[in-house]
Amino acid sequence: MVEAPLLELRNVSKTYENGFRAVKEVSYSIGKGMLVGLIGPNGCGKSTMMKCINRIHPTTSGEILVNGESVLNRTPGELAKVISNVPAELNTSFGLTVAETVMMGRYPHSTNLWWESDRDESFTEEALHKFGVFDLKNRYLHTLSSGERQRVLIAKAYVQEPRLMLVDEPTSHLDMRYKLEVMEYLNAMVKKDMSILIAEHDISLMARYCDLCIIMKEGSLFRIGPPKEIITSDLIEEVYGVSASVGFDNDGELFVLPKRYKSGRGSI
Predict the structure, then answer these.
(1) Domain count of the chain?
(2) What is the pLDDT of residues 81-94, one digit of tens each?
(3) What's the pLDDT at 95?
(4) Which 3 state secondary structure label does DSSP give 213?
(5) What is the spatial distance between Cα 144 and Cα 162, in angstroms, rounded to a whole number?
(6) What is the tally of helices (H) and strands (E) in the chain?
(7) Shared domain check, 195 and 78
């Protein structure tokens, strides 16, 4: 018996009320135990597609399945037990502390309405230690640095015990050290029964850590495969309109060095 992919999209499209087609008949599948990079220029449909997967946005057409079951047939509470979401930015923290924010990730599993179980509390404490924010547990979320806040949001998603974690631009406001730190945390979280899908602009970072990369262009799937096999200077030019050097360093890690924007209208 062939095991179903962890995540499968079948001809998924999303068209907004103004007629804009943000996602156009996208199909792909992701196996279990994978770190997957979702790459493409601004406006290519990355964030919209992830919001369709966790049903923040309804799809216009197509099917989305997690563990072989359609997400359309699940309630938000049922979906939260299998999919967790790490947003690019948290619009408000509602005056929550770090510990309270992480504990919120346990709510899909809670059986008590007014208090947490011993397992909820121990799992939350474990996550606070695991992601290096235990000493910050009584701090308010809005007082943290970008790197600290990102680790808290990842810890919150972790305690949901998901099968699929969706992470939107986790390193966009971070310096080099924290970019690597966040990616190391995400890489360590991948398990044999859980995968992580990351929408990210740093192509070199995705190539270093990801098992698979999905390249999007203008709402469509452009290419999918292992990053070191599919990311080339020709691909960068076709997707981004940028001339770039793509090579490998002494450790065999792929890097992308943008050189100039090829506007097609002459030099600026």
Answers:
(1) 2
(2) 899 999 877 666 66
(3) 84
(4) strand
(5) 25
(6) 9, 12
(7) yes
